[in-house]
Amino acid sequence: MDEFKLSQKGFGRAVFGLMALSPVAAVLIPWDFGSLDNDYRQLMAGHSLSIIMIELLIFIALFKNENLISDFVKQTNWPDKIVGTVFLSAVLYSMLFVSVSKMLFVLGTLVLLIHFLFTISFFKNMNHVDRHTQQYFWVFLGTSVIIYTALWATDFLIFPPIESDWIERVPGVTNVRWTGFFWLSSFAAGLALARSSGLKHFLPAVLFGAFGLTMTLWTGTRGSLVAMAFGALCAAILSATYRKFIIKYCLASAVVAVVINFYAPIPHKQYGMDRILSRIQPSEVIDRGGSGRTALWKWTAKLAQNHPFVGHGIDQFQKMGPKQTLGFKGPHSFSMQMLFSVGILGILTFLYGTWRFVGLYRLEVRSPHQVAAATFFSGGCIYAGYDNFGYYPYPVAIFTLSMFMLFKSRRPLGPSST
C-alpha cells in the first residue's frame, strides 16, 4: 500500500502539472501566433481542443490497467441508469431529427465525453493526492497564466495587431472576453498561499491576485470581475480561518490593479476601466441589458420553444441560434445553453445529477488549496449565469479540479493522505 501511495503521489503531481500548464498549452499546441490562417489552428483554437487533448491524455494514463468505465456502470444504481438512458436517447433523437450540423454535434459530443471520462478518472483515482500537490497546482497555474500573457505580448510584438486584433486575435481563445477565465484562475491561485497568520506568503499571493485583477480591468472584462468578487466572498464565508487573509488579499490586489490601470495605456476602446464603469451605469443596463444579453436570452428562449423537450442538439447554437447572433458559440448563459441544446429533459437530468452528487459528497474548505478552489468554483457558478463559462474546455476543466478539491465522499474510501 505504501508503494501504491508513493506512485500515486508522483503520478498525481504529473497530472496536476499537466493541467497547470493548460493556459500555455492552449497557445503552443495550435501554435496560435499571428493571424489565423490555416485549418489546423482554426480547429484547435476555435474549439479549445488543446485542453481536450490534455484531458484525454490524462484519462488514457489513468485508464491504463483499470476498468473505470465498467466499474462506473456497475456501481451506478438503476434509477441513475434509467435517467442516463432516457437522456442519451433524447440526445440521439435531437442529433438525428433536429440538428443541422452533424459534424459539430459529433465534435461537441466527443468533447463532453472526454470531459466526463476525465471527471470520473479523477474521482476514482486521485484519492491519495496530497494537499501539497493540490496547493502547488494553483501556484503553477497562476504562473502559467502569467506566461500565457507573456506569449500574447510576444505575439503582438512580432506580428503587430490591427485595431480589431485586440478583440479577436488573442492566442488560445477567439475573443478577448474569454481571457477572463484565465484571469479568474490567476486570482484564485493566489489564495492557495493563504495563511491564518504572518505575511511570509502574502506578497507572492498578491502577485497572482493583482495580476489577475489588473488584466481583468485592463481588458475591460466585467464577467471575470464579478466572478472574482463573488468567489472571494464565498471563500471568506466558507473559511473563517483564512477570512482576514482573504480580505487583505482582495484589498491589496485591488489597490495594485487600480493604480496600474490608472497609468496603463489603453490600446482599444473596448479595453480599460472606463469600459467597465460605463457599462455598469443604470442607463446602460436599462438601454442595452448588459451588452445585449437579455435580448439574446429572450431570442434563445423563444427558439427553444420549437423543440422544448429534447433541444436542438449539442453544439448547434452557432448554426441554429438567433439569426442576429449566428456564429456565437453559446447564448452567454449555462441555463439557456442547456435549454437550447438538450431541452427540458436535459435540464431535469442535470438537476437529478446535482441532487445525487450532493447526496454522495460533502463540501470541505479547510486548507489553502481549498480556499483557492472555493474561489474559482463559486466564481465559476455565477460566471456561468451570464457568460459561456460552461462551454469552453479550460474553465470546465479547472472547475472540475476545484470540485475534486472541495467535495469529499460521505462514505469512507479507505486511507487517504489528503
Description:
With about 425 residues, the protein is mainly alpha-helical. The protein has a domain at about 1-65 and about 100-175 and about 265-280 and about 365-410. It is built from 19 helices and two strands. The protein has helices at about 1-20, 20-30, 40-45, 50-65, 70-75, 80-95, 100-125, 130-160, 165-170, 180-190, 200-220, 220-240, 245-265, 275-280, 280-305, 315-320, 335-360, 370-385, 395-405, and strands at about 360-365, 405-410. The chain has a two-stranded antiparallel sheet. Helix 2 packs parallel to helix 8, helix 10 packs parallel to helix 12 and helix 12 runs antiparallel to helix 13.
Q: On the 0-100 scale, what is the average pLDDT? A: 88
Helix and strand pattern? HHHHHHHHHHHHHHHHHEHHE
Unreliable stretches covering 5 or more consecutive residues = 1-7, 283-289, 413-418
What count of helical segments does DSSP give?
19
Instruction: Provide the gyration radius in Å.
Output: 21 Å
Main beta sheet: 2 strands, antiparallel
Globally, the shape reads globular
| Termini separation | 15 Å
Percent strand: under 5%
- The protein's oligomeric status is single chain
Give the strand line-up of the largest sheet. 1-2
Helicity, in percent?
over 70%
Number of strands: 2
Structural class: mainly alpha
